[in-house]
Batch of 3 targets.
Target 1
Amino acid sequence: LTKWTVDDDGNLLGEISVPLKPGVVGGTLSTNPAAALGLEICGARSARELAELMAAVGLAQNFAALRALAGSGIQKGHMHLHARSLATNAGAAEYQLDEVVARLLASGDVKAWKAEEILKDLSGSEVNDDAVTATAAGKIILLGEHAVVYGRHALAIPIPNAVRAAVRPCDNTTTVSIKEWGLRAEVTAASSDGVAAAINRILDELDARDTRFAIDVSSCLPMGMGLGSSAAIAVAITRAVARSLGQDIDDERVNEIAYACEKLAHGTPSGVDNTLSCFSKAMLFQNRGSLHIQPLQLAEEIPLVVAFSRQAGPTQEQVAGVRARYELDTVRYEALFDQIDDLSLAGASALQARRYDELGRLMNVCHGLLNAIEVSTPDLENIVAIARDHGAVGAKLTGAGGGGSVVALCPGTEDAVRTALERSGYQTLRTQTAGGCANE
Ligand code: PMV
């Protein structure tokens, strides 16, 4: 298919002949956002331009393959690539990848079992047996985000045991790693943002500034996706550090400390994230200067699908944006928050009685109001539309918005909704969402 020659001026000339018939409208472009995004990135304005681009890429790949065959051979690079995918499949975090790949290649056994063995060994040296562990829940807000910052009710359910922290005292600097996020950081007195700042606060609150810890966190919650990951990390670390110090602190105190960490991260949090994380119970939550928590009894796991948009939603920014618009139009925003409050109250009764159709309608109205206060995005709207089209009785953004996640209520249609979303290129949360099981 290809022909390589050198012209009279010494230039390398490549030619490729392949039948190509791509399109730039309709077809998969309207159903698969990944295809539309690809087209936008490459900037092709016509089917012909796209075909030319594809041919050019094919030609470049062909040249790379010829070069590899004519050079040191492709085996070396291939084994490296293979080792990397084995390491990833074995569950190596980003920061562990190079080490696992190097050890795998050096062992001569580039096999899945070997990758698992090396990773176990590596993780074992990071968290040894004297580590003390604790877990915390993530959360899904079914109704009431943003309004809850203004003293209204929010209806939320836990994602039990979503985050685990393992801590062990050490002699050097305090360190923290979050495997799934590829994050590894030192915690020094000067650390003033992110998880390191939260750890400083936790150590202060527990009177442990002079003790050093190696802290390893594993999280099934992605970062900044509206599922309460920062609060869950603060709760799990607080519990594990307190246990490691032999301090017996109750959940109220853990909640207080995690709330202080949330204030560092988000400015003016309502406290819904840390409270859910700490108590791991479905609840109607309200904070009007003091907490009012009404735990809900759920008879079964709620048929939900949570999908991630392509953008993280920075909570602080979204909350600040709503605050600015609230200041400009306080009467209207107060009325919108009152309506959201009504939805949360009605939703709590519907949820407990398993009246899912009604709860779904309330979620749809809530999404409309969240859109009205400008925290939705085109991507979130797309996810909501796909979920509803495939049988969700309700779908709305959850958490701060501006990116983040959508929660869809799908009695009897969970599989269809999940499949449709994944086919459209959206990842979904694959973990048990509610049922009230306690943290360890
Ligand atoms: O996006 P998250 O998981 O941080 O949830 C934020 C929920 C808000 O109501 C927008 C803020 C809050 O403090 O309650």
Note: Confidence is low (pLDDT under 50) at residues 435-440.
Target 2
Amino acid sequence: MQSHVIDALRQAVQHGLVRGESFVDGRWRPGGAAAFGVVDPSTSQMLAQVTGADDALVHEAIASAARAGVPWRERTGKARGELLRAWHALIQTHAGELAALITAEQGKPLTEARGEVEYAASFVEWYAEEARRVYGEVIPSPDVAKRFLVLRQPIGVCAAITPWNYPAAMVTRKVAPALAAGCTVVVKPAEQTPLTALALAELGSRAGLPAGVLSVLAADAEQSSHIGRLLCASDAVRHLSFTGSTEVGRLLATQCAPTLKKLALELGGNAPFIVFDDADPASAAEAVVASKFRNAGQACIAANRIYVQRGVHDRFVAELVARTRALTVGSAHDSGVRVGPLIDAPALAKVEALVADALARGARAVVGGRALAGLCHEPTVIVGGDSSMRCAREEIFGPVAVVIAFEAERDVIVAANDTSFGLAAYVCTRDMARTLRVAEALEYGMVAVNTGLLSSAEVPFGGVKHSGLGREGGRQGIDEYLETKYVCLGAINSEPPAATVKPTKSTLPTQTLTTTQ
Ligand code: ADP
């Protein structure tokens, strides 16, 4: 291990950011469920033992979120934004410790982990600003006696189930807009990476988030499924946001049906990366490396199928091969390493199986192709295959770039759309008309042109088809956490008539009544 990772981890412990417990109702709480180990994928060493949250703690987290929700939604958006800004400042102050935690429990190299902390913090900053921009509407009424108002109000208690590949950013991308909107949140992070989420909750509390506004429940794989069922079954929880596999997303959608919860799902991808003849092969290869090998390929928006037009194919492959050879693979703790280990043994076994399938179908590995010690896989480029390979049909989630040649624009659009997924797609071309034509034809939630990096707090991230529902980030991200309320104001077209009661013999003295209809 690099000494500065160890130092930063030691500091995180000394500063009280790491405890093997859940964080519920504003404090660290041991759970009564089985303890589980958090393992460093780079070293296979146990980093921490964490006690799992039992049913009582889950119910307490939901109840405290409901209690805290009333005063939280009554604050102004500006006031909530100020607390988010304080949280953002603390995340930045402790960025080194958070990055070390991410490197240790998730396995991405420290430079990338620092990038993730910045990215995670950017959602908190963005929604601190958006909190005061939750605008309603005044709709012109066809009736002169009526006015129509539309209010946007917090949906209530929200649950968030997050994955291991971005342990900080997937938490803040859900929690920051929810809190900005006036909701309270119970988070269940992935069993592999609970420490970062828990540290974020502790920092939120120190920033002044009231108890119950943000709770984090730690759980192993088995208890995670159970907690998922409890969160889905709870009528108090009005929204579930999930990032993870399509299979689990579908299950959670089913479990949420009885309570009719609003759902946001960020699921799997199978991103096509299309390089046209007119693209610069070196820049296209650079963009593929950025998209493909970041986080060792463990991102749902990572390029999965790289379609390259015949005229530029060989030059592109030469550029990609040279860049892939230059990537250093190994322990995420070692300086200079660009590609760290995969999260666990089953993940590595899956990548190996996909590579073996491609080779068995006649494709060739021109760089790499093998698994290495320490859960690592060689950065690999596979050529000569076609869309029938498993690695072109399934999400690879590993450092394997699969290049498939194509002839015509029409054909590649059909191939790119021939999947049940629809998260991110990439295009490299210098032709503006083609850019628009292809971007419109691709059945994806996001299209990146001449770049391999598209994520940003300012934009709506999300997919279509089996890649999910809803958007995270951007102006749109806060909509998830808001209900629309229509208010109809009647009888307001004129001042109330001053009704005069005629004096009668029995009414003395004369009085004037003001009606308030
Ligand atoms: P991956 O395959 O990338 O690990 P998963 O979809 O299995 O993705 O996991 C993503 C998140 O969903 C994690 O927090 C995990 O604990 C949680 N999870 C997995 N299975 C279930 C389930 N049946 N119910 C609720 N949460 C689950």
Note: The CA atoms of residues 275 and 291 lie 14 Å apart.
Target 3
Amino acid sequence: MKNGPIKDRDILVLGIESSCDETSASVLRNTQLLSNVIANQKVHQSYGGVVPELASRAHLQNIIPVIMAAIDQAGVKKSEINAIAYTRGPGLAGALMVGSSVAKSLSIGWNVPLVEVNHMRAHILAHFIDDNSARKKPSFPFLCLTVSGGHTQLVLVNDFSTFTVIGQTIDDAAGEAFDKCAKLLGLEYPGGPLIDKYAQQGNPNAFVFGKPKVDGLNYSFSGLKTSVMYFLRDEVRKKSDFIKQNLENICASVQHSIVQVLLEKLLLAAEQTGIKQIAIAGGVSANSGLRKTLEETAKQKNLKLFIPPFAYCTDNAAMIAVAGYYMVLEKQFSSLDKEPLARWEI
Ligand code: KG4
Ligand code: ZN
């Protein structure tokens, strides 16, 4: 990096995200968003889940145009970029390989430092992206419920680089529970947003599904999926068009069950830690039922709630860039020999 104290200068960070099925690139000036380009991969829709090899191929096709579009939309020149932040993990090995290879190549070609970002940390640090909206940012320490397709974690965040997992799922992630239940209903992947959509017209108390019994701050969602599966099997035997006739009510009830489980442990964590600042992050934090329930509960319990704008809930490179920015400030640079990590603790 050029001379002078880092904190006194503007830093342009290019973020690159390719851990799952979104190819994304973003440019930030410090924490200020200049662009955030996301190419979704429609190819997985009919398979009921992400097909890793197809994801890698789609990343390969999309990644250079997406990066160029992000730089173009940011109104900056390639030569002005000061650092490249990329997702090193966790995620799909082949998908991560594409992003990390491109990030390393650009780092050599442009002679700029590289920063390796943990995707789960980035989901949380998405709260610190500045995009001219009037929202408030959490201050430290705060609790974050990170709910995505692959993870469900309760994280105690002490500063930009100190994250402690105090609870997590022992089987399926919350997003996985949404997607698997959606699949049982014959909905396309990813089913979470579709359950959300149909749930808005349904009665959340129409059907009751078994509640998981897990001690402490951990979660479990595989039992819910099984209970939905047997429930649907029995009802469809009695009436073959049961799902079609009751789709809204089933979706609302499934969503209600997942939200209640998430809420219960989050409140327990707040009680046990005495922390009153609560944040959510990850794809499932886009869920309207979860957002509404949390808003109501936070008011009742006098908690301060932080919900990211929709654009930064699901996978995006702006969160990678903002996480990278804070690492640049700490001079936590990476090297070319770091291989992608399919599994990587927060
Ligand atoms: O964070 P994310 O984009 O990717 C991972 O890192 O996994 O999360 C994707 C997950 C999927 O399971 C998707 O169904 C879920 O987030 N999701 C939703 C909603 N939007 C995305 N689940 C429920 N309601 C939504 N509105
Ligand atoms: Zn994610």
Note: The chain has a mean pLDDT of 96.
